[in-house]
Structures are given as structure tokens and as C-alpha cells.
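pasting for ref
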Amino acid sequence: MNDRGGPAVCAEGLRKRYGGTNALDGLDLHIPRGTVHGLLGPNGAGKTTAVRALATLLRFEGGRALVAGLDVARDPHGVRRRIGLAGQYAALDEGLTGRQNLELFGRLFRLGGRRARLRAAELLEHFGLSDAGGKGVAEYSGGMRRRLDLAASMILAPDVLFLDEPTTGLDPRARGEVWDTVRALVSEGTTVLLTTQYLDEADRLATRVTVIDRGRAIADDTPEGLKNRVGGDRIEVVVAETEDLGRVAGIVARVTGPGAGPETDEDGRRVHAPVSDRVTALTEVARTLRDERIRVEDIGLRRPSLDDVFLRLTGHRAEVA
């Protein structure tokens, strides 16, 4: 298991306890090189503990892990030379400029003054921050701060990059900037382990996703496969009049075809059903409702949420974890 041509991350049966709580309870992970792997779960599921253990920031008490071909327990210093880590909150000094922050990180990694300056300039250009390099970090937007934080994690051009909920608290535009940056890094050969609470984020970025609950992997699949486990995308219609529910259910059933039929919620005046072709289903249902003059308050497509995944896989909602 120490061949650098093998997986970027391989963990077998990782265990870690805090008091009477199993933060990691036999966690297994297998992440091919050059991919984004999502670690999906709510707060308290064990995501951050897993990242900290794999990044050598805490010792696990059982199991075995390799990162970039090196044994985490036996060669933590070697692992640290081949990884980058960006936590939930940007580790930046707001009293410094963007360039000064990167030069500081370079010196901390013992690059020396000249190499630190050159690397800072490279990273500012790579992450689209050259024009902002001379500005104080206090002037940066949320997306710019996160990109600068990612740049700092890439000082040593790591083989594996750990991103622990990198878009927490960011607005949609800033989240999109971070996603574009992650894609660019992977296209250049970096392997990314991404922890997130957002199924849509894993869907946009990850090749595969491991869902964890109470420190254990409860599912490992592609984003599409994971969505299919909970019924995939759904069309949802909210009618103006309760008496139209039956007619709307019939329309939805005709459009969505065989398989799981539509479900009706009388209290919410709502009809919903799984769909395979999202755009066609929405277009056809909307057209038929218009032609039959059925008044609706809302119609749209709903994607499975983290809560949907957890409810289906564990029998409890995500916030209970």
C-alpha cells in the first residue's frame, strides 16, 4: 500500500474517540489520484476529524491510512510535504496584503525570501488575484479571501489538497469562484478531498462521494448514483385549489411515465414525482396545466438535499447527527 502509483488517499478502519464519542468509527476511504472526492455529512458526522487525521493534525487510534503513497502514522513529516489544507475559515492576516500573506506562508515553509516572493507572484496570477495582490486582505470579498486561502494551501504544489467546507458562509457568486478554482487545480493533477454539507456542491465537483454518519461511511457512490438512491430529481406542483389535486396527479403521471407514481400532499396542495428528464418533464407538465386551465401557485424541479439522503440512508434527519 505504499506505491505512489496507487490511490491518493487510502484509509482503512480509522478510529478516533473523544471521551465517550466515536468521532471516527471504522471509516474507510479510497480516493483515486487526480479526482475530487466529496466527504458529505452534517455537523458532527466526523468530516473534520477525518481530514485532521489524514492531514496528520491528530492521531487516530485504530486503522491505517496512506496519503500520497506515504503512511500517515509512520511518516507524518513526509505526508505534510505532499499535502495542502484549507479549513472552514481563511487562515489569513488581515493586516497584510494578499502578496505579503503568501510570502509569509512561503517563508514558514522555508522557501527562502526570493523563492517565497516568486511563488507568491505565481499563485496570485494563477488564482486571478494579481491586481489585488497589493491590497490589504481586509478589502477582499469573501470569494477573494477564499481564493487567497486556497493559494496559501498550494505553496508547495501539493499532491493532495484537503478542503474542509471551503464555501461555508459564502454567497452564490463566491461559491462559484471557489468551484472554478477547484476544477482548475484538479485539471493540473491535484487530488482534492472536499468535505461539505451541501449535496449540490458535491454534485458539481466530485467524481465520487462518501456519505458519513457518526464516523462511519454509510454510502459511497457517484453523485448521480447517490441522487438515484433517494429518488433523483423531482417535479413539484402546488395547486391553487385542493380539488385539482387528482387531475394534476394524473397529468404528472402521464408525463413522468412508468415507475414510482406521483405522491399527493393534500395539506400542502402539492403533487410531486421523480423525473428522469428534468427539462422535458417540467415543460410538458407546465404546458398541459396551461392547456387544461388548472391554476397553480408554484411549479418547479427539486433536487435531493442532504436531509433527503440522510433520511433515506439512516432513517433520521441530518440535523439529528
